Every structure is written in C-alpha cells, then in structure tokens.
Amino acid sequence: MVQQNGVVDTPLVLGMMRLAEQKQLREPAVLADWIEKRLEQGLHWFDHADIYGDGRCESLFGAALAARPELRSQVRLIGKADIVKPQAEPAGRRVSRYDTSEAHLTAAVDGSLERLGVERLDLFLVHRPDPLMDPEATARTLERLIHSGKVAQIGVSNFLPEQWRLLQQALGARLCCNQFELSLRASQPLFNGTSEAMQRDGLQVLAWSPLAGGRLEEEQLGILLNEIAADVGCGAVGLAMSWLRRIPGQPVPVLGSLNEDRVADALAGARLEMSREDWFALLEAARGHRVP
Question: For residue 80, what pLDDT is reported?
Fold first, then answer.
C-alpha cells in the first residue's frame, strides 16, 4: 500500500456551502466569533468552492477574516473549481458545464483568493471530472498554481480511480486527496473498489454529505443510531462521524451543518472509536439487508 500523503490533519472539516443561507452569521464580527470558536475546538479546516452561493460564501468568510485579521494565519482553506453554472453566462447558450482549461481554473483561483482576502489556498481541488479535460494542460495549470504560491496542495473531487490516475500521470506534483460522497446512506465506494484504490494510491478521503442530507435518522437506521447513542454518550451526528472514521484511511468528514451543537457532537463522534459490531450493525440498518 502506498503511504497516504493527505495533508488535511483534522478529524473534521467544516463545509461552507450553506454559509450564505445563515442570516445570523452574515455580520462579519459575528462570523468571526463563530470561526474563532471553531479554532478553539481545534477545527482549522474550512471547505469552500467558487460556486457556493455564487461566490457569496467566500465573500462572507473573507469579510470575517478582514474584520479579525489575526484569524487568517490560523485557518486552513480548501477551494474547488471547474463547475460553470448557466447563470454565469452573460449571453449565448446557458448550459451547465465543467471547465478545466487554464484560463478558467486560473481565473477561478484568483477570484477565490480575492473574495477570501488571502494569498494562498491550503488545498485546491478540481471539483468534478471534466470529460473534455486535456490532462497535460490541466496538469501544467495546477503545477503553475503551486509554483506561483497561490495553492499549497492539489487534489480532486468526485473522481473515479481511472479519472484521477489519468490526471496524476501527467502531473509532477502529487494529488493528495479525493473528496466524494460517503456516508451510511451512500456506502457504495466501500464496495466498488474506490476505497481500495484510494488506499493503494495514497489519496486521503474527504467525505462530503456525511449526514446523508438529513436522512440519517429515518427508518431502522434512526432507531439503531438512537440505541447506540444512549450507550456511548454521543448523538446520532457523532455516530455518523465515528462510522466514517472507522473506515481504513480514516476518511475526514466534511460537515455541512454550521449549528454549534451539531459541530460539537460531530467532533466528539469523530474522536470516538466504534466497535466492528456496531459498524456493521449500522451498515445493515442503512442498507436494509444483512451483510451477505
């Protein structure tokens, strides 16, 4: 097995996709307080993308850092790009697409840096596989972003093994991670070879939607989560994190909730070691059938 070279040294990443929807966090000073509290909990990594809130999420976060500049050196920022939304087009065919061209990725990183008010992203991910990607050209673009100091590390998001390997083959630098959907309700990567490919290639797993879009506590899975929670002193959110962290390579959940109680429960669960029996019991409840 290749030594894993992931750089996201945390049990939990805080996802900023819904930041613009949180009215209580729109004031820079209030958001700065919220960020400072997360830092005090030992949570330093914040996950962004240029399309989140059409850039507003990055702008709000940047305004908070500008209001409290001492936080800039403490936060670790993840950025993502290559998705182009139809409304971003001034004219012509307004169609969703992916764009891994040099012009688009370079402009996207520059835009994120400007909105966040920082000089460098600690990690930059190609957001979605682009079927029209020129691997050599995209690789040179990513390397230039690293050499310019605008990006510290690079990775991918939602890539399948042959997709990230094609890009890696063209790169001089190493891809450090792949961010994809993984949860009790979305466990397919554990059974289709993706998890093993990640371990073999030394990529760190960042798991988005670890709470399955609010579907964790439905049906038999919800009943079992509550039963186990009563035994271990951790809530359902924390147990979902513990389940993920039990997987080889210790995937890092990207928590989309900004609720302080949920963040605290998630952090407690991410540090809890789940038994093999509980892990498989939860898997069975989530899938609705016994492990064959």
Answer: 98
Range of the domain at 170: 13-181
In a shared domain, residues 67 and 108: yes
Q: Distances from the Cα of 274 to the Cαs of 56, 153, 198, in angstroms? A: 38, 31, 22
- How confident is the model over 113-137, as pLDDT tens digits? 999 999 999 999 999 999 999 999 9
CB 245 within 8 A of CB 25: no
- Same domain, yes or no, for 47 and 107? yes
Full-model pTM? 0.94
| 236 falls within a domain | yes
Find the mean pLDDT for residues 238-252.
96
Average pLDDT score, the chain: 94
Same domain, 131 and 36: yes
User: What pLDDT digit, counting tens, does each position of 61-102 carry?
Assistant: 999 999 999 999 999 999 999 999 887 556 666 788 999 999
CB neighbourhood size of 154 (10 A): 22
CATH of the domain at 150: 3.20.20.100
Secondary structure of residue 251 in the 3-state scheme: coil
Q: Which of 34, 46, 52, 61 is catalytic?
A: 52
Range in 47-56, 58-67, 219-228 with the lowest mean pLDDT:
219-228
Encoding tokens for residue 85? Answer: 């939304």
**SS3 of residue 11 by DSSP:** coil
The yes-or-no answer on residue 52 being catalytic is: yes
Residue 28 and residue 127 in one domain: yes
d(CA 57, CA 31): 11
Same domain as 220, residue 173: no
Nearest Cα neighbor of 8 from 82, 55, 75 is: 75
Count structural domains, the chain: 2
